[in-house]
Design brief:
This protein is an all-alpha fold and about 140 residues long. It contains 8 helices and no strands. Helix 2 runs parallel beside helix 8, helix 5 packs antiparallel against helix 6 and helix 5 runs parallel beside helix 8. The protein is globular and about 45 Å long.
Length: about 140
């Protein structure tokens, strides 16, 4: 589902992985973010510009925050659990959440981090679906 939205941001508009994920998620999940709101994740790209935590993962956590935090994270009954599920799935796929490690497995000069963004879309969709299903069928 989310993967249907990322192409125009990543390739047509040349956003980085973090920017692409938040913009695609905003459109797909109707997060009601404004353009200026989404700029704040731009620095997350390329592993916070340092090869650290993958920007697509960080934007996925931002999406989870928008969906499951009302006011404060420490008042949310869900954010830790759903974020843990997301990180676990990335670790299972790549053995790491670090951009420098993920990039070795999925980067190509022609397509940049296309595979990682696609994987982030799939994982985020999967986590949201599993978590929402679990909440409605305890």
């Amino acid at each position: 589902m989310l993967k249907e939205y990322y192409d125009k941001y990543y390739f047509e508009q040349n956003y980085n992985c973090a920017e692409t994920l938040i913009r695609a998620a905003n459109e797909c999940y109707d997060l009601k973010l404004h353009d200026r709101d989404m700029i704040m994740v731009g620095g997350y790209g390329a592993g916070i510009q340092t090869g650290n935590t993958c920007g697509a993962i960080l934007s996925a956590v931002a999406v989870l925050s928008m969906k499951y935090i009302e006011n404060k994270a420490h008042e949310s009954a869900s954010i830790r659990e759903v974020t843990t599920a997301l990180i676990r799935k990335f670790n299972l796929k790549y053995g790491s959440v670090l951009c420098k490690d993920i990039k070795r497995q999925s980067f190509s000069p022609e397509y940049r981090c296309k595979k990682t963004v696609e994987t982030a879309c799939d994982i985020l969709d999967e986590v949201l679906e599993e978590f929402d299903k679990e909440r409605t069928n305890p």
